Structures are given as C-alpha cells and as structure tokens.
C-alpha cells in the first residue's frame, strides 16, 4: 500500500541518487512506463530507458541536491529542491518545484519539474 | 496566449482573493469545468459552483495567505503557500504546495493541494 511515509522516503532517495549521479539507479525509482517532463511544457520522456538517458546528462557533474520543502498527499508528492552544480568555470543553482505521482508499490509514475530560466542562477567562479 | 507572467499574476491574485475570503471571486479565476482536489487524494470537486461551495468554507474566517515560493512553466504553476487562520481560540497555520494548470486564457483548469495533517500547526491563543 502506498503511504505518505513511503512517498517521502522515495523523494529523499531520489535526491540522494541525484547527488550520486547514477542515471540507471535514478531510473530504477520509476515505474517501467513512467513519464518525465522537465521542465513542464517540454517534451515528455516515457519509459525507463528514455528516463535513464535524460538523467545521464548529469554524469560527471559535481552536484548537490537539497530538499527544501516536501509535501505529500494521496498518490502525489510536491517538493522544492535546490540543485547546485559546479564546473571549473561556474556554480549554477536551480530551485524547481517537482511534482511526482506514485503507483501502489511506491514507484514514480510521473515527474513534472516546474521551473523557468528565471529560477536558475549562475555564478562565475573566481580564478584561483 | 498563456505566459509565465500571466500564470504568476493569477497565482498572486488567487492568494489575494483567498485573504479577501470571497468564494465567488475565487471561483471566477477557474475555468467553467475546472477541478479542485484539496488535499490531493480526496474527492474531486468539478465546476465553478462546486468550487465556490468549497471555498465558501472560508467565509468569515480571519485569514492571511502568503506565497512563499512560486514556480511556473508550460501550463503549470506550483507554489508553496502559508495560510494562517485565526479564531477566538486558535491560530492555525497550513503550508501546502499547490499545483495548478491553466488554459490559454489564463484561467485555472485544475488545482491539487499537496499537504497532510503533519503540515498543519494549531496554537491555542493565550486567554486575554
């Protein structure tokens, strides 16, 4: 049975796996025929293979993922997430609100990330 | 055409009308056949009349509504909202994340409020 606790545990695990940057492990949290729309309004990626390909864009990035606020009810979670990526030149921060639905086994059936370019901040790193 | 600006303006107007406590005025922000699910997982209210009846539960409550975080992309907004209601005995605070979709005219086509009882805090007012 799906519970609020199971949903919030899966959201926390999602943030941990984002940080670990293993696309296949992230995709395992999704149901086989799940959909990802990031940002909402962009093309919908459907199925674990397409979802793993999407997250593989994170490969090799130094990334932190901090859950700022998590809410859950029914089959749905919404959470405010701060993702910071660091490259040689830039530190970039993006803070979407993500909305996920879950099946009865606690697998993610859909994810829509709500953010626009105004929610992304880039800082050039000072040369060292 | 629906724009991010139009969506965020409508969300701000929604918060203002919540504070004003006029259920009919809140319902006017919704499309005729819109749906409200508050909290997500509870019965879906469909149509402006049912939606106005839902918000009429706020009638006569002293209420403040503060938008903590607003995100928008595509046809969707997600926002973290703090609603504080004050009665003779209690001050109650609830901080859901609400998810709304919009039609091309900027009217709300669906609202799902993501919160659970753990997100509600009641304080007994000290006797005066």
Automatic annotation (TrEMBL), chains A, B:
What domain of life? Bacteria
Spell out the protein name for this chain. Answer: Nuclear transport factor 2 family protein
Location of the SnoaL-like domain = 11-110
Species assigned in the record: Amycolatopsis albidoflavus
Stored InterPro entries: NTF2-like_dom_sf, SnoaL-like
């Amino acid at each position: 049975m799906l519970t609020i606790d199971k949903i919030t545990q899966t959201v926390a695990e999602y943030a941990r796996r984002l940080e670990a940057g293993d696309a296949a492990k992230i995709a395992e949290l999704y149901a086989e025929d799940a959909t990802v729309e990031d940002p909402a309004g962009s093309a919908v990626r459907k199925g674990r293979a397409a979802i793993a390909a999407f997250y593989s864009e994170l490969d090799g990035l130094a990334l932190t993922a901090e859950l700022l606020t998590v809410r859950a009810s029914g089959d749905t979670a919404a959470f405010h997430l701060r993702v910071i990526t660091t490259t040689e030149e830039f530190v970039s921060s993006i803070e979407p609100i993500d909305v996920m639905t879950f099946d009865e086994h606690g697998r993610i059936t859909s994810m829509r990330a709500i953010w626009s370019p105004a929610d992304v901040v880039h800082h050039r790193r000072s040369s060292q």
